[in-house]
Structure formats: structure tokens, C-alpha cells
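Hi, here's the filled form for the chain we discussed.

Project: internal
Contact: R.S.
Residues: 173
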Amino acid sequence: MFYQTTITLPTLRLKALLSLLIKVGTQAKEKGIDDATILDYRLIADMFPLVKQIQIATDNAKGMASRLAHREIPQYEDTETTLAALQARLQKTIDYLATFTEDDFADAATAEAHFPYFKDVHMVGADYVIGYGLPNFFFHVVTAYDILRQHGFEVWKGDYMDGSLIPFVPNAV
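And the returned structure, exactly as it came back:
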């Protein structure tokens, strides 16, 4: 369960987000929109911009996996200023998640998740993943998608889902 929820699910969504950014990059060139403008797009003024949404999504993905596997969380600098740099960050996170095996999560049920902004409390195992980790991860992934859609990029639910990543099985005949 922990491997699927902290590796498989986030990896699929990060790959879809990577494909989405590639598509947006092509459209941006056609529309004459520079990367700095795109990275600063927001849904509303008091929300984080696109660049921060993707940074947080990758931080959530590597953080969930690392906490539950009792690994040190890799630190990223948050210095991305181009779509290519964001794509590289996504790929770096996907590659990091690929280093985990199911055996890494043998003690995940008792792994504690501590955060500086939740003082004097922590979360444990499945309660952390289901109650906070995954919802927070998906919030930032879908917000990145929504920002791009709201700012006129031709992206659809299919881009968010990326059908090439869905494990379809043919029906028996």
C-alpha cells in the first residue's frame, strides 16, 4: 500500500505534469509568451504562482516517500526560472522516486512525519499519507494544471490524466 501511494501515484502525476509543461512550452512559443510570465501565473492574487505550485508538488512527492522509508529528504534550491528548469526538477523527482522499492516501506506504518509549521504535533504512517500527504500533493498538481488552463493554454483533463500512463487492460473476448 505505501509503495503504491507514495511512489506509483505521485510518479504518474509528475510524469503527466512533465508532459503538460512540454505541451505548454510549445504553445507559449506559438503565442509569444515568455517563461517568466508563465511561471508567475496564478489562479488568484493570494495564491502561489505556477512555479511554486510545481516546487511544492515535487517537495511533497519526495518528502512523502522519504519520510515513510526513513530516508533523508533531498533538498532542492527552488531556483527554477524557466519551463525547462521546472521540467528538469520534475524529472529529478521522478528519478528519485524510482530509487525506492516496496521493501523500503516495511516500517512505513510507524513512520512519523514532522513539519515545522505543525508545532508540537506529528502524523504517522497511513494517517499521514491519506489525511495530508496525498491531498496536499494533488492540490498543488491540479492547481498547476488549473493555472495553465485559466491563462489560455489548450490543456484538457486528458493532459492532467495522461492516458498513456493509465494501466488499461483489454477486456477478455
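Let me know if anything looks off before we file it.
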